[in-house]
Amino acid sequence: MNPAPDKKMPPSDSVTTTIFVPAMDCPDEEREIRAAFERLPFVESLTFRLFARQVVVTHKGPLEPILDTLLRIGMEGRPVEGTFRKADIPRKNLSQWRTFLLSGAALLIGIPLSLLYPNEPLARLPFLVSILSGGLPVAFCGVREIRNLSLGMNVLMTVSIGGATLLGEWAEASVVVTLFALANLMEASSLDRARRATAEIFSSTPDLAVIRAGGAEGEERTIPAEEVRPGDTLVIRPGERVPVDAVVFHGSSDLNEALLTGESLPVDKKEGDPLYAGTVNGRGPLIATASRPLSDSTYAQILRRVEQAQAEKAPVQTFMERFAAIYTPAVLGAAIIIAIAPPMLGYGTFSTWTYRALVMLVIACPCAIVLAAPVATVSALTRATREGILFKGARHLEALGKVRAMAFDKTGTLTHGRLRVTRVILAAAVTEEEILRLACAVETGSAHPVAEAIRKEAAFREVATAARGTITRTFTVIEGQGVRAEVDGKMVSVGNAGLFDGKGSLKEEAKRLLAASASSDGPLLFVGTEDSILGAIELADQMRIQAPETVQALRKLGVSRLALLTGDNEGTAKTIAAAAGIDEVAHGLLPEDKLERIRSLVASHDTVAMVGDGVNDAPALAAATVGMAMAAAGSPAAMETADVALLTEDLRKIPYAVTLGRKMVSVVRQNVFIAIAIKIGFLGLAAAGFSTLWMAVIADMGTSLFVVFNGMRLLSPSSRHIPVCQCCHNEH
After folding, report:
1. Average pLDDT, the chain
2. Of the listed 409, 521, 617, 650, which one is catalytic?
């Protein structure tokens, strides 16, 4: 059966283009571009990456009309090729610097002239120059916003500056223009600083690769990393970046994988070990075989995840943008009423109340409100990526902060997933080596950790070679129970007791063997034919050392219900759960059983996280509010399946991610509360006549800068250790 087509995929005659727009500096410009593009009939969908200043357009026909539309609304754009590169971020915004310097210089000239010649009209000309040089760019943007039916701060500032000029307050209008230009410059610089921190993730894209034509002894040549193909022989010298995902063919070294996992300690690599694109080779030269092209590498998947996460908005951010869209017209309407109603009722003059209304418009600029969420969410996502935690979107980070119940898979999650054979139990007149030979023959084509453990033990006992070539093409997987294949003309089954449930005598024999190994903590794997059980293989797995610490940290964070969901036997499950500190255990579960357990947890706790391997636990991961895949660095499927991919095997990343999600929501709330509180306070002062235009600009500028810098705190490594109040489980 063919899979259903992805509804999100564009039709075959559509084209998707990424356009870099240098002027797209904040949500106001995003709103303008969206309004302009949505009127174009050939534009099918839009995705905005505000921090990268990119808009991804799915369209029909040529790109030129879209670029022309950008020019008509006063912006310039250019298509960019590929996503695996450092973001294009200008170090200096020359136009903003020019506006600030011109308006500021004219203001400085006008102040002494107006004091020396207070009654001379010519002495006020520098103020007019300041107003025009700083105010005209704002007015052009304001006209664009009105034309696009997208009212923002430029409309409010245009009305305020124009109104003050008409009232004869040229000096104050000049001060307002200069301070507003300074505010824009400082805000843009602060946002660019946050962008550069995010862009560092993209800066490690490998550019070149050294390959040997004709194998390990061939001639070396340097080619672009994008041209490396699977099977090429790579030469990676000390200090060089690995160009593509590969496997060590010869040599040993230590590699810095902090780019992927966030862990600074180098990882030792030897023959047969995987290498990941973008990681840095340490002390020894390596010869490796490329396994994937750069576009499919783990590093490329990370970059795609980062771009996807930054383009998707958290619910709190979407709410604030909807609020700002209503807020700005409402403020404009309120200012008109303030300017007209009191003087018509006999309370003061029109000029007095008009001035107060203009002050209100400046204070009410929505920039701080619309920036309250995006700076915090992108900073948190960037911090998470640096720690080796990939989110599909900000909504998953926000949801993780609300989690109060969490379920864990066992093998490969709470345990290392590297099983070893501890004992072979005989049930028939055969040797231990014969049982291992048969089991190894059946498991030859399997990639399951159990199969790997059996193959290693068979190799150690020197019976692995005898198993090769004895299996026919009859390998069958019985989901949740085991595998079956024909060996030496007989059907041999390898699996748990459930594999023999339908056969009375075999079921009883399986029960006897289970009872004989009741003291064991590891799973028991039965080996049998159609008419008899030959014996059992006892396996053991080691719990991760961080498991108890992780469980304790989650409890302190208020995750009150922790469950272990495993297909393993009761003894093993309870032993691991007790050692980790988990009270609730469900064992012997098939994938559909895990799915039902997760659905039950979601029904009772609303927000639930599931931690598993991202492939075997796919149904449960999908049903959970937040699905988390462990140790996903080498598994493309795990990264695509889960909402959150933990690239490292360190379980402590889980409570860190929960805390980061809560911190992000906390910072957004702080930003919104401070922004609205300051604006309400100054609106009251303005209505009472205690605030001036220049005071309003300073208040608005200070609020916007607070919002930006408060959000950027999440970029700091110190956010790893965020103190959490034990009584309410909120961050201090």
Report:
1. 80
2. 409
